[in-house]
Amino acid sequence: MANILQASTQYGPKLASNPMARLDQVADWMAMRTGLNKSEIIMVLQELNEAILFFNKQGTPVKLPGIGIFSPSIRRTGEFKINFRTDTNLKNSINATGAYSGTVLNKANIGIDSTSLKELWDADHPDDPLEV
After folding, report:
1. What pLDDT, on a 0 to 100 scale, did the predictor assign at position 131?
2. What are the residue ranges of helices labelled H in the chain?
3. Sheet with strand 62-64: strands edge to edge
């Protein structure tokens, strides 16, 4: 029997990803908007990485207004990691009505409930009914 996760993966809304923006593309875009030159921006972004690592290695979270908070943590295994919590305004901005211009796959299924997912799954997979 299939499970709800399988049905959600197949029929739920998801984003079609574009190729990742590279550092040089981001630097070009920022240079166009700020008047700084590309090499200065690349240097600042690379140093930002080092600054986050420096402070997090000391146990100090780093808050970047408009971006978010980088906080060190440790797993039970003793492995350290850096957690990222997105700035509220950044999160709200992508969720503003009409803000997202990328492609949403299965857009018609936004908000679909388990019963409707079961109907879709069972119609396409009669030999493997969905267990809800």
Report:
1. 87
2. 4-11, 23-34, 38-57, 88-95, 114-124
3. 62-64, 68-74, 80-86
For 45, the token pair is 């972004």
User: Whole-model pTM?
Assistant: 0.78
What is the C-alpha separation between 106 and 123, in angstroms, rounded? 17
- How remote is the C-alpha of 129 from its chain's centroid? 32
How many CB atoms are located within 10 Å of the residue 10 CB? Answer: 16
Residue reference for tokens 């943590």: 73
Classify 62 as helix, strand or coil: strand
Query: Tokens 């992508």 appear where?
Result: 94
- Token pair listed for 75: 């797993």
